[in-house]
Amino acid sequence: MGEDVRLRAVVALAQSMAAAHTPRESWRAAAMGACEALGGSFAALSVWERDLGRLKVLVNAGDRAPDEEEFPDGETYPVHRFPEITEFLHEQWAGGGAPRAWVETAGGPTVDESGGHGYSHHRVDALRRRGRGCCVVAPIVLHGRAWGELYVARAAERPVFGRDDADFATVVASVVAAGIAQQERLEEVRRLAFTDPLTGLANRRAVDVRLDAAIERYREDRSVVSLVVCDLNGLKKVNDTLGHATGDRLLERFGSVLSLCGAMLPGALAARLGGDEFCLLTVGHSADDVVKVAEELCQRAGELKLGEGVACGVASTGDPIGPVRSARRLFRLADAAQYRAKAARSRGPVVAGRDDTVLPLADTPPATSQDRRRFRDAPP
Fold first, then answer.
1. How many alpha carbons lie under 13 Å from residue 176 in its C-beta half-sphere?
2. What is the mean pLDDT for each group of 10 consecutive residues in the chain (380 residues)?
3. CA-to-CA distance for 299 and 314, rounded, in angstroms?
4. CA distance 94 to 48
5. CA 180, CA 58: separation in Å to the nearest integer?
6. Which residues have a Cβ under 8 Å from the Cβ of 80 and sit 6 or more positions away?
7. I want to staple 211 with a disulfide (CB 3.0 to 4.6 A). Which of 34, 51, 69, 327 is the partner?
C-alpha cells in the first residue's frame, strides 16, 4: 500500500471518528477505518478493564465469524491469557521504549528485526478457528497509560503482515487514541450539560429534552407518559437552622431515594429541576404503577431524618386528564397536583385526573411565582 493511500486512509479514519455522535459510532469508525487502512478483513477494538483484569471487546468490524457480534455484551478475555499488553506496559514502555505493534500468524511464532513480542497461542488458536492467517496488534495509549488494543486480521489466503505494517499499525493506533480522547471529552461535556452536580441526577435540560421526545412518542403510538413532580418540604428550615451544608446533604439523600424509587420503573428519568424541586419521568408504564412508586417515594421521604417529607404530584396520559398536546401541559398538571399536595400537607401523592380540583385550564397561570419563572419561556 503506497504512502499516499495510507495517508488518505488515516485522514479518513480521523474524520470518521470526529464525526461520530456516540461512543459506539466512534468505536465502529475506529475499527472500520483501521481495517481499511491496514488492508485487513476484520478488526476489533478492546479496552483493558484494569480493575477486572480483562480485555473487553467493544466492537467487531468487517468479516465477522459466526460467534462474533458487532457490539458484544460479554466478550471478554482474561489479561493473563494475553500478557503482551501488560508486558509492553511494564517492561518495554517503562524502560523508555515507544508503543509498538506486533504481528501474530496462524502458523505460530514469527521473528522480525525487532525480535517480536513472542508467541501467544491463544491468539494463534483464534486465528485458526476463524479462518484467518495473521493479525497485527497495536496497543492504544491514552493519557499516558495503556488503554486497550487495536486488532486487525487478514484472511488465510492474504499476505502476512510485515514489519512495515506493524509500524503503520502503531501510527493508526495513535490516531484511534486521539479519536477516543476526543469522544471522552465530548461525553464528559454532555454529561455535565445534562447532570445536576450536587445530586448526580439529571437536570432540567435533560428533562426538557426527554419529555419533548416522550410527548412526540405519545402522539405517535399513545405510549403512556407520566410525570411525578416533588417539592422537598422543610429545606429552608434546615438551611436556616443547620446550615447549607446540611441542606445539601438532605438534597443528596432525597436524590438517592428518588433514584432508588425510579429504578422500580425501568427506563425512568430521575431529575432535580432546581432548588428543592425534583421529578420522575416515565414512558410506557401504567399510571397505576407510577402512582404506586410515587406512594413509595412519599413514604421513604417521610422517613428521612432531615426535612419534613415531600409534596408530590402526578400527571399521566394514562389517566383522564384531557388532551396533552405539549410537554408544558403535562408539566402544568403535575405541578398543580404537587401544589395541591403541599397545600393539603398530604403524606401521599395527589394525582391529576383522579381529583378534579387539580385539573387547571390550559391558560390557567402556574400555581406559584417559581412556576411562572419555570414556564415563562416554555413552548406552548
1. 33
2. 82 93 92 95 92 88 94 86 59 56 80 48 85 92 85 94 93 94 83 85 91 93 95 89 91 90 91 93 95 94 88 94 91 93 90 65 38 38
3. 15
4. 18
5. 12
6. 53
7. 327
